[in-house]
Structure formats: structure tokens, C-alpha cells
Amino acid sequence: MNEFLLIVAAYFIGSIPTAVWVSRYFFGIDIRDYGSGNSGATNTYRVLGARWGTTVMIIDMAKGIIATSLYILLPFYLTKSNDWDRTNFMIGLGLAAVAGHIFPVWANFRGGKGVATLFGMILAIQPLVAACCVGVFLLVLYLTRFVSLSSILSSVAFAVFILFIFNDDVTLYRIFSVAVALMVILTHQKNINRLLNGTESKVPILKHRDRRRRQRRKK
Predict the structure, then answer these.
(1) So where are the chain's domains?
(2) pTM over 0.70
């Protein structure tokens, strides 16, 4: 019963609609009525700017970290459990938070895609793997400026890290890594179509680099 209550609590933590509340409180709008219609950090970045997009991303990551770390409230997982028990329960807590982000009870069940909250979850479970995924995300973002492509490739890299490089022996975690890659790909179908059609929008970073490239081409 205690585990069930904590999973419910994790869902409610994940349900905090950061982007929706930020857009309503500071701008008097609903972020879901603009841009891609998504209430995640990426759409906030596009619509409200880098400052607010970064704020939303950090808070959404924190939701995943806090929810996944709720296991510390049960002494069993701190003293008598093995790594398998603890990791399995952390996965359950994290997934509840991600589900809350995607289907937030506080925002009519219209949320984001859960990538930032999912990353916070991974950070709480296995920080080194999370750091490797961040590396992949930032590299792709630097090269392409597509947040969607960065999210997709970093999620696929997560599965590769767990299955082959770190070779984690927790069966549920291995299954989870593959499910994460599939989930991110499925939730980014519209983005994938736009990428293939050449209509996906880029985040407004590295403008100076792009300007220099255009100037070199003109020369």
C-alpha cells in the first residue's frame, strides 16, 4: 500500500503543468494555444524565449528527480532491499511522473511529451548514463539546432548505453530503456514528418555561427 501511495504521489508531482502555469501567470496566455500546441520546454522556448524555456525544462527535470527519489521515504528500500528492488521501484515512480507530465490532472490531461521529466528520472536512477545522454543531446543540438532530433537520438542512445555499453543487469531497466526509445519516437511522429519534409523549426541558438556560415557562402 505504501508503494501504491508513493506512485500516486509521483503522478501528481509529474502532473504539475509547468509551462501552462508559467504562460498563464507571467504572460496571460495558454502555451498550448501557440506554436506546436505542446506544453513542454521546447514549445515554451519557441514561444516565450530561452529564459522561460530553460526555466520550464529545469523544473520539469526536477519533477522527474523528486518523484523518482520518493523511494527514500520507505526504509525498506534504504536498508533491506537489493539494487534490483530499488531500481524497479524507482522505475515505477519515474514512469508515474512521466505519465503525469503527459496527462496532467491539473491541466485537463493535456501535457507535454515527457522528455525532460524522463531525463530527470534517468538522472535519479543512473547519473552517469544520464550524463552520456546529455552529451548526445547537446552534440546533436549543436550540429542541427533541432530539439526534436536531439531528443530522439538521445533516447535511442539511452537504450544503446543500457543494453550494450553499460550492460545493466536489471531486466526491467533493460526493457525500460527500449520502451523509452520507442515512446520518444512515437510521441515525435509529427516532428519526424516535419524533419523529413524540411519544415521542422530550429531553436534560436548559435545564430552567430549560422550568420558566419552564410557570409562565407556569399564570398
Answers:
(1) 2-218
(2) yes
